[in-house]
Amino acid sequence: MAGMNVVIDPESAVPPFEQVRAQLAHRIADGTLPVGTKLPTVRALAADLSLATNTVARAYRELETAGMIETRGRAGTFVAASGDASRTRVAAAAADYVTTVDRLGVSRDEALAIVTAALRGRA
Questions:
Q1: Fewer beta carbons within 10 angstroms: which end of the chain, N or C?
Q2: Residue 84 scores a pLDDT above 80
Q3: CA distances to 2, 86, 95, 115, 120 from 98, in Å
Q4: CB atoms within 10 A of CB 112
Q5: 78: which strand partners?
């Protein structure tokens, strides 16, 4: 499948299901996998990556819970339009953050450092 290119690093401390989830989420978010793109079946992707089907199924479940993909019965699994809605919500949250930062008198540089630390899990 075009744009899939999921690569599993067996030496990584990150569990394989999370590697699959994160890579697909990134490709959906950046538009490499646009809305409506049909994803491989769980079984096919698991075979391609030499993973257990349950591993890929967990990644797909988490992406579906996040609204990034949707399963349409026998038709398959597709990139969901709500992924665009998710980006809209994130942009709105960022705008709210800027308003809060300005109201509290925190510098933009410090606010950016706080966000960067939070995104890197050091908040």
A1: C
A2: no
A3: 37, 19, 5, 11, 19
A4: 11
A5: 38, 70
- Tell me how far apart the alpha carbons of residues 59 and 103 are, in angstroms, rounded to a whole number: 39
Rounded Cα gap, residues 21 and 69, in angstroms: 11
The CB-side HSE value for 81 (13 A sphere, CA atoms) comes to 0
The token duo for 61 is 């479940």
Residue 92 pLDDT more than 90? no
One-letter amino acid for residue 110 of the chain: E
C-alpha span between 58 and 78 (Å, rounded) = 16
Using CA of residue 93, residue 95, residue 98, residue 103, what is the dihedral sign? negative
Identify the pLDDT of residue 54.
98
Say if residue 90's pLDDT is above 70. Answer: yes
- Alpha carbon distance 62, 71 (integer Å): 12
pTM: 0.67
H/E element holding 60? helix 53-65
Residue 107's SS3 state is: coil
Decide: 60 and 42 in contact? Cβ < 8 Å. Answer: yes
What single letter denotes the amino acid at residue 60?
Answer: Y
